[in-house]
């Protein structure tokens, strides 16, 4: 049988973007081997025959024997090589054995636990008061994706959408940020070994064009995201400490705390508003332990209890805290009240036309606590609807009395 193996030598390069893939298939990663250690000179290395894999090799290795699959590649860094063990003594490798490469097929694109936020410098983003709902933890359609330099990987792109849009993808330190550069990479030998599944990755090179924010675009794969998240956490959501917890859009598990849904105008700027909330409210000592997620979402419209196919864009703010027991969610509730008060006073200048708050704490039952229209347009619309209903009712009354034909 022909072995379709390719060996490459690559220079060391660097790259950095926004959401970074965590797993790798590097030869020197201990967790990639069934013995929990990198093979040594007396070992027999065994790759499963029918498993396709790309493996980055950082340094030279002496081995007793190695069984390769029918299709795959070694990507060799400068100085990396394989040599046959010459029988000399190797410290730490007194007794050899068979060491098998782990199965990399199960690493799924839509698993939030396999991604981490990074800064443009490539450093991990420091933990802070801002978090993301679960659908936003996987790369969104305007995000940059990075696979770390000097790493190999294999990722399953199975998806409920035929195309997964992204702003850019960096592989081996090379940023691919145009449709043509990405198409060229897909035509190369490595892409088929790194990506598998029914979802097609597509690079657009464009960021979110709307200052009010853009929806993530992972809604269709929400069930897939939640299934992966629950597999990693024991197959069930933690039991919230409040009686009727909230279910934020795009989040897998219900939470205690508060949600605020904002209707907005053309003047709303999502990033500026988030910075304002962090600077003026979240940074206060009394809100230490409170976390906030803010993003644009699309909520299904309902009429007389019937869910419509159309959706309404709105800004969702999710507030949770680290309080326990009867105090669970109470700090988040207080922050939500402060946000609503700010909206009532300054909402129109911020481009916010109305806001609705819901809370669920360890001492209260969830429900709509406040709803504040803050623009004359919203009030005028409501008054117009009421006037139209009254007019329609009057016409119907006159028709039934025979006064109107």
Provide a quick synopsis of the model.
It holds the Pfam family Amnionless. With 405 residues, this protein is of the alpha/beta class.
List the helices and strands and how they pair.
Elements: E1 4-10, E2 19-21, E3 44-46, E4 53-57, E5 61-63, E6 65-67, E7 71-77, E8 82-84, E9 98-100, E10 115-117, H1 134-137, E11 144-146, E12 155-156, E13 163-166, E14 168-171, E15 174-176, H2 179-186, H3 191-194, E16 195-196, E17 200-203, H4 222-233, E18 257-264, H5 270-282, E19 290-303, E20 306-321, H6 330-350, E21 352-360, E22 367-373, H7 376-400
Parallel strand pairs: 1-7, 2-11, 3-6, 3-9, 4-7, 5-8, 11-14, 12-16, 13-17
Antiparallel strand pairs: 2-10, 14-15, 18-20, 18-21, 19-20, 21-22
What do you see in this structure?
The chain has 405 residues and is of the alpha/beta class. Among the domains are: 26-100, no CATH class; 239-359, Alpha-Beta Plaits (2-Layer Sandwich), CATH 3.30.70. It is 21% helix and 29% strand. The protein contains seven helices and 22 strands. Strands 10-2-11-14-15 form a five-stranded mixed sheet. Strands 19-20-18-21-22 form a five-stranded antiparallel sheet. Strand 21 (352-360) and strand 22 (367-373) form a beta hairpin. Helix 5 crosses helix 6. The radius of gyration is 27 Å and the shape is elongated.
Gyration radius, in Å: 27 Å
State the share of residues found in helices, binned by percent. Answer: 10-25%
Largest sheet: 5 strands, mixed
**CATH topological fold name of the domain at 239-359:** Alpha-Beta Plaits
Q: Could you give the order of the helices and strands?
A: EEEEEEEEEEHEEEEEHHEEHEHEEHEEH
Overall shape: elongated
Structural class call reads alpha/beta
Average pLDDT rating: 87
């Amino acid at each position: 049988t022909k072995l379709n193996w390719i060996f490459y030598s690559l220079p060391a390069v660097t790259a950095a973007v926004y959401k970074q893939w965590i797993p790798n298939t590097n030869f020197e990663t201990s967790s990639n081997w069934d013995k929990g250690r990198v093979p040594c000179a007396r070992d027999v290395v065994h790759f499963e025959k029918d498993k396709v894999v790309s493996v980055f090799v950082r340094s030279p290795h002496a081995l007793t024997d190695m069984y390769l699959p029918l299709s795959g590649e070694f990507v060799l860094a400068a100085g990396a090589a394989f040599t046959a063990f010459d029988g000399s003594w190797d410290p730490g490798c007194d007794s050899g054995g068979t060491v098998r490469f782990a199965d990399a097929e199960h690493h799924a694109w839509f698993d939030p636990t396999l991604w981490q936020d990074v800064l443009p410098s490539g450093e991990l983003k420091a933990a802070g008061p801002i978090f993301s709902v679960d659908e936003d933890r996987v790369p969104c359609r305007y995000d940059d994706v990075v696979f770390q330099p000097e790493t190999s990987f294999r990722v399953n792109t199975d998806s409920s959408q035929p195309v997964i849009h992204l702003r850019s993808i960096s592989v081996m330190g090379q940023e691919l940020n145009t449709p043509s550069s990405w198409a060229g990479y897909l035509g190369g030998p490595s892409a088929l070994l790194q990506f598998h599944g029914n979802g097609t990755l597509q690079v657009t090179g464009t960021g979110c064009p709307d200052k009010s924010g853009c929806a993530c675009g992972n809604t269709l794969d929400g069930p897939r995201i939640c299934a992966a998240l629950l597999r990693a956490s024991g197959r069930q959501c933690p039991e919230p400490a409040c009686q009727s917890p909230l279910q934020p859009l795009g989040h897998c598990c219900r939470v205690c705390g508060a949600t605020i849904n904002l209707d907005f105008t053309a003047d709303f700027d999502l990033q500026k508003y988030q910075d304002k909330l962090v600077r003026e409210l979240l940074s206060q000592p009394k809100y230490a332990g409170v976390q906030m997620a803010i993003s644009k979402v699309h909520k299904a419209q309902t009429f007389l209890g019937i869910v419509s196919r159309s959706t309404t864009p709105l800004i969702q703010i999710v507030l949770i805290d680290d309080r326990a027991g009867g105090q669970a969610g109470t700090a988040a509730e207080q922050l939500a009240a402060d946000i609503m008060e700010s909206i009532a006073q300054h909402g129109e200048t911020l481009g916010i036309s109305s806001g609705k708050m819901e809370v669920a704490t360890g001492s209260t039952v969830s429900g709509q606590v406040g709803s504040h229209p803050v623009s004359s347009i919203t009030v005028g619309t409501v008054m117009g609807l009421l006037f139209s209903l009254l007019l329609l009712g009057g016409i119907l009354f006159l028709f039934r009395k025979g006064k109107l034909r």
